[in-house]
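Encode chain A's predicted structure.
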Amino acid sequence: QAMATLARHTRPGGVVVVEPWFPPKVWEAGRLTVDHVDQPGLKIARLLVSGQRDRVSTLDIHYLVGRPEGVRSFTEHHELGLFTHDDHLDAFGRAGLDLTDDRSPGLAGRAFYVAVKPTGGGTDDA
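Encoded structure for chain A:
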């Protein structure tokens, strides 16, 4: 559905770039991480626990934010699909996008996909 939506919002000859989330074989359920900020007037702790339900990754994130006037806490829950390379290729094809590159390194070290929406033959859509 996401790829079809991207294709609908792309003009003929336009480019779609997708940096995918982790594939199922790489995702680490049960991973616990912590990040923190330690500045004189600001302390932040961010704890994250990863999980998985079928082919959906889950991220439960807990924040503590401390300032001189007090401490605040809040949580976030994220769910992201876990798709294989073949799943992505299929989604691009079903959306009518022509994949031009699927090996370029992305910002997070995961390869990203570059596709073009076909022009439909000879018309100038610029």
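Strands lie at 15-18, 32-39, 42-53, 56-67, 70-81, 98-105, 111-116.
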